[in-house]
Design brief:
Number of helices: 4
Order of helices and strands: HEEHEHEEH
Largest sheet: 5 strands, mixed
Mean pLDDT: 97
Strand content: 15-25%
Shape: globular
Number of strands: 5
Helix content: 10-25%
CATH architecture: 3-Layer(aba) Sandwich
Number of domains: 1
CATH class: Alpha Beta
Structural class: alpha+beta
Radius of gyration: 14 Å
Strand order of the largest sheet: 2-1-3-4-5
Bound molecules: tetrahydrodeoxyuridine
């Protein structure tokens, strides 16, 4: 299975009764392992979590902390980009060159790098004392 197929499969497990918008995310770690997540909504709406956050949690729980590639998939007219918060979450573990494949269940894809999705990212280097 490629990364899009992995994201597509886990998307079907999303818990999205409030938005009706199921999202799947697959991360290929630097070691080659694939880590999956789906959005998990909550009746207290702000407590819901994005698919990317779930995949990151699965990756870290598996002992991996470097991202090689990401795929996000949803049933939408155009490929859905990670939300702003998830861009920052991904950037904790993904360098600027990492490719993010955004896919629709109807076969459209758009690939961008982390640098394109989050230009001027806040990093640990910004906390160094001058
Ligand atoms: N969502 C994600 O899981 N990832 C994204 O990149 C965009 C939005 C989820 C959050 C919420 O459960 C639903 O999609 C509608 O916003």
């Amino acid at each position: 299975m490629d990364l899009v197929q992995h994201a597509s499969a886990v998307r079907l497990r999303a818990h999205a009764p409030y938005s009706g918008f199921q999202v799947g995310a697959a991360i290929r770690g630097a070691s080659g392992g694939v880590h999956l997540g789906c959005n998990v909504e909550n009746v207290a709406y702000p407590q819901g979590t994005c698919a990317e956050a779930g995949a990151i949690a699965a990756m870290v729980a598996a002992g991996e902390t470097r991202i090689a590639e990401v795929c996000v998939i949803a049933d939408s007219p155009a490929p859905v980009p990670p939300c702003g918060g998830c861009r920052q979450k991904l950037s904790e573990f993904a360098g600027p060159e990492v490719r993010v494949i955004m896919a629709t269940t109807r076969g459209k894809t758009l690939t961008m790098t982390m640098a394109e999705l989050l230009p001027g990212a806040f990093t640990a280097a910004h906390m160094e004392r001058p």
